[in-house]
What does this fold into?
Amino acid sequence: MVLEKSVRFLDTTLRDGEQTPGVSLTSDEKVMIAKKLDAIGVDIIEAGSAITSEGERDAIRAVVGEDLSAEICSYCRIRKEDIDAAISCDVDSIHLVAPLSDLHIEKKLKKDREWVRETSVECIQYALDHGLIVEYSAEDGSRADVDYVESMFRDALDAGAQRVCLCDTVGILVPEKTRELFSRLSGVGPVSVHCHDDYGLGTSNTVAAVLGGASEVHVTVNGIGERAGNTPLEEVALVLSNLYGYDIGLKTSELYSLSRLVARLTGVPVAPNKAVVGGNAFTHEAGIHVHGLLADTSTYEPIRPETVGRKRRIVLGKHAGRASVLLALKELGLNVNDEQLNEIMGRIKEIGDRGKKVTDADFQAIAESVLNLTSKAWVKLEELTVVSGTVMPTASIRLKVDGEEKLAAGTGTGPVDAAINALRNALSGLSDVQLDEYHVDAISGGTDALVDVWVKMSKDKHVMTARGAHSDIIMASVEAVLQAINRLKERDAKEGQ
It folds into this structure.
């Protein structure tokens, strides 16, 4: 079988991805994500399910109103009212989903196979009569009778549907079976694959489907979605392009910024060890690895960080070697002798041996201490007041910014959020500083426990980690953020910004 070495991407972050428990996107947020998806070259954007609510229809219309290059799609059941709702949003296409497993037909619909067949064909023709492109999907297709699925796909295409899709709705396919299944179904017509990640096989099964002849993949950014999520866009993109040589038509250098945007707007964090877009994907600590990287980056990096819009990071801890420390010192513009290097390494390993992360701010403080340097604090906290309880959490803050006093207030979802927002409001030009990660650990027990707050912040190309320790979690959080801001400001000053 000769395979076409190209594949189309349907992104369903705004529909299936939004079904992640606890996620609800506003119209503006959907537009922001849709514009970014369009900019990287996604072929089809499933903007939502128009029948859901008037608010959902407004959001879909807002996406349509951006006049994007991508085809804009609405999810529909095999019901004319769903199609009417999609028509009212002026979408380009519908993702018409029909349950095809006997389990779903009998238990959920309480109908039979022929009812599904007749209703599907009727709905396809109705949508086509109203100028819509139709992608007809077999819900729970991985547990359906294959002969029935194939016959339904033939009827759908004969009725005028432009493409068909098999959904592994509960993620029970395995790669070998998937490739075999799609080798058969791709003979019927243009077939897509929609996988879920319940067994962690979403990417493997999606790739296997493409190798079997699927011409389109359904994905979500960061793999978000209900239960264990959907197939991650970034993983499939890199596997198909880098390992199988497919033309994916995507601007992969924007994948990381897309991932961060979706994580921020949905509130669903990306695991540090997540492939491609996780915080640790291009981060190295072990001395032997860093030594190899300095000789040739391909020794321990199968993907070039720049490919997905990332930068290589060297972090320091008890596994750090001389090469790691020297490289980090070089980035700070510091030169050391052997005695000073050994002292710095000893202090780093001491922190690591206590089970603590060595933050960037820790490293700079250690280096400056050993080299007998002093660092000027650009921002100093003078006073912080936070009111919380039955009222909306509110904070007021007084800072000294480069010697000048600044006063500001802020509100938030909690006292820490309010304090950080007040800090942001007090600092002009802070809008381009992003708080990427925030972690809290109790160092000691009891209600007066000492709290350790660890943050990762970024500005332009620089990333800074810092910590604050205090019995008050709000003060620990503000200390950590201020420490990171001061260090980022220092780097800007050294580069003449």
